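Need a sequence for this fold. Nothing fancy.
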């Protein structure tokens, strides 16, 4: 198979028919979740529904249980009570076979990237391919891995490098390439822009939005990054008091009279992020008008990012 054909095959999502009883509009549903570590209650009667095709931002103070919630949804944390349905499967009671099947339908980027340090980037991407599709020939698997590396915005040379040879931003992209290895329907991202410089973080935001648009992903994104929330999230879920206290667009959240929400979004950083988004929109609009004028006069378009 040629590289182009392999890339096209890798780009075509697996035909994942909705299962009987699967709510195709809400790929993730959490109801009445309770998680404890000893006496420490993390979640109590927490409920959350994620819409298909959205980027859902998940925010909350440190230690409110954002990562534990994500781990519960992907079956790494067994809750004390509650039901979690992912793509029609009850995660809390999934049998082994179902469990394996469902894990191939999501990709996860953990906070630290969680790459195998003794494997190259391409070999890291191949790990889930080998696990779920051992029948794929070596050549094709290598080609799919190279395509995922490119898709994540890394230069092709990065495929042969070890994680220790990459910058923090490149490691995140390598982790993303691995998360995308199986053409997932759901993408879980735990603080993807943490530790990146502002330009790297903005570029990563753009990449997530672009991937979500082109691949139709549903994205569950834990972040403390207000710019990310403003720039790419369709809705934001707020964790506090052991529950999701609100889930809505940022303009609607701003109308709520909850002290944490007000302080978070209306504090100095929240206002700065909002102002940055307003400036970005105005610049994009101005550039769009400039493009239209230039096109009318047969001029070249200006280059560079819009914002
Ligand atoms: N395996 C564990 N054993 C005991 N306590 C844990 C474990 N995992 C998480 N916790 C506790 O659960 C609480 C929630 O942790 P979690 O990592 O989900 O918070 P978070 O909201 O993601 O925080 P941050 O924003 O700082 O990353 C914390 O108090 C943490 O110490």
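Here you go.
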């Amino acid at each position: 198979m040629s590289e182009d054909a392999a890339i096209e095959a890798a780009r075509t999502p697996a035909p994942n028919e909705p299962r009987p009883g699967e709510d195709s509009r809400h790929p993730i549903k959490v109801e009445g979740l309770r998680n404890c570590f000893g006496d420490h209650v993390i979640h109590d009667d927490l409920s959350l529904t994620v819409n298909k095709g959205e980027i859902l931002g998940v925010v909350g103070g440190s230690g409110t249980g954002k990562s534990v919630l994500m781990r519960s949804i992907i079956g790494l944390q067994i809750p004390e009570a509650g039901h979690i349905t992912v793509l029609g499967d009850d995660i809390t009671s999934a049998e082994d076979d179902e469990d394996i099947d469902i894990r191939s339908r999501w990709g996860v980027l953990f906070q630290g990237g969680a790459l195998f340090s003794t494997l190259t980037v391409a070999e890291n991407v191949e790990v889930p391919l080998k696990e779920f599709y051992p029948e794929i020939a070596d050549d094709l698997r290598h080609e799919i891995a190279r395509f995922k590396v490119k898709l994540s915005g890394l230069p092709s040379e990065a495929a042969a490098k070890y994680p220790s040879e990459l910058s923090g931003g490149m490691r995140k992209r390598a982790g993303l390439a691995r998360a995308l290895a199986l053409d997932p329907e759901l993408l879980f991202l735990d603080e993807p822009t943490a530790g990146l410089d502002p330009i790297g973080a903005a570029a990563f935001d753009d990449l997530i939005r672009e991937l979500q648009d082109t691949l139709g992903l549903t994205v569950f994104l834990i972040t403390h990054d207000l710019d990310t929330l403003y720039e790419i999230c369709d809705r934001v879920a707020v964790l506090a008091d052991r529950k999701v206290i609100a889930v809505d667009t940022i303009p609607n959240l701003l109308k709520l009279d909850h002290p944490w929400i007000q302080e978070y979004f209306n504090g100095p950083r929240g206002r700065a992020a909002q102002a940055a988004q307003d400036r970005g929109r105005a610049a994009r609009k101005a550039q769009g008008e400039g493009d239209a004028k230039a096109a009318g006069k047969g001029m070249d378009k200006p280059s560079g990012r819009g914002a």
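For context: The radius of gyration is 20 Å.
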